[in-house]
Write a structure and sequence with these properties.
- The structure holds 2 protein chains of 2 kinds.
- Chain A is an all-beta fold.
- Chain A has no helices and 11 strands.
- In chain A, strand 4 and strand 5 form a beta hairpin.
- By secondary structure, chain B is mainly beta.
- Chain B has no helices and 11 strands.
- In chain B, the strands form 2 sheets. In chain B, strands 2, 4, 5, 9, 10 and 11 form a 6-stranded mixed β-sheet that branches. Chain B has a 5-stranded antiparallel β-sheet with strand order 1-3-8-7-6, with no helix packed on it.
- Chain B is globular and about 40 Å long.
- Classes of the chains: A mainly beta, B mainly beta.
- The interface between A and B is medium-sized, with 23 and 22 residues.
Chain lengths: 113, 110
């Protein structure tokens, strides 16, 4: 069991669909992260939110749109994705952006048809 | 360019034997993390190494950090099947990003 909860666990979508990934933590952490991980590769940082404000965007294509509605929630809105976007999407949190370690959720396995 | 290199990338271990895997990094960093990942699963934090000479142990795993050599080692004592996983090291770099190595894929064979 992890303290960072991600839903859904699996998602299959077409290239024209709009869907959202959700991440929730109740540890009082003020930094939250989205990573993308391809098979047999390390995680790649996509976005960092610090105190509910976007702190880092690693030049991610605009078809990925993050949102942090409050300090416990982090969403990743998906639109017009490409097959190469199929991957495991991991959410993580830490006490602050300056504090480590990051605690990871179980991830959402995304497949684009 | 920052490099975090782990080796060997793949290691087949015999149960009961001892092994060491390595993480080298090319930039100054005072914090290094080891994570474990089982296939299709998330990353589990194993060790946080915060200073030169730091040594942490948990069960059959022991991690150490030499910041002068920019090297961390993860030593496995008397390997068991349950330790089969991919082990990632990550260093903290600018803006508190984590820079991950490619991972050490470990398979423990009876």
């Amino acid at each position: 069991d992890t303290e960072v909860t991600q839903t859904p666990k699996h998602l299959v979508m077409g290239m024209t669909n709009k869907k959202s990934l959700k991440c929730e933590q109740h540890m009082g952490h003020r930094a939250m992260y989205w990573y993308k991980q391809k098979a047999k590769k390390p995680p790649e940082l996509m976005f960092v939110y610090s105190y509910e404000k976007l702190s880092i965007n690693e030049s991610v294509p605009s078809r990925f749109s993050p949102e942090c509605p409050n300090s416990s929630l982090l969403n990743l809105h998906l639109h017009a994705l490409q097959p190469e976007d199929s991957a495991l999407y991991l959410c993580a949190s830490s006490e602050t952006q300056l504090a480590q370690p990051q605690h990871f959720g179980d991830g959402t396995r995304l497949s684009i048809l | 360019e920052l490099k975090v290199e782990q080796n060997p990338l793949f290691l087949s271990m015999q149960e009961g034997k001892n092994y060491t895997i390595y993480c080298n990094y090319s930039t100054t960093s005072d914090r290094l993390y080891w994570y474990r990942q089982d296939p299709g699963k998330s990353l589990e934090s194993l060790f946080v190494l915060l200073s030169n000479g730091a040594v942490k142990q948990e069960g059959r795993l022991m991690a150490s950090l030499d910041t002068k050599a920019r090297l961390s080692t993860l030593h496995i004592t008397a390997a068991v099947h349950d330790l089969s996983a991919t082990y990632f090291c990550a260093v903290v770099v600018g803006n508190n990003r984590l820079a991950f190595g490619k991972g050490n894929q470990v398979v423990v064979i009876p």
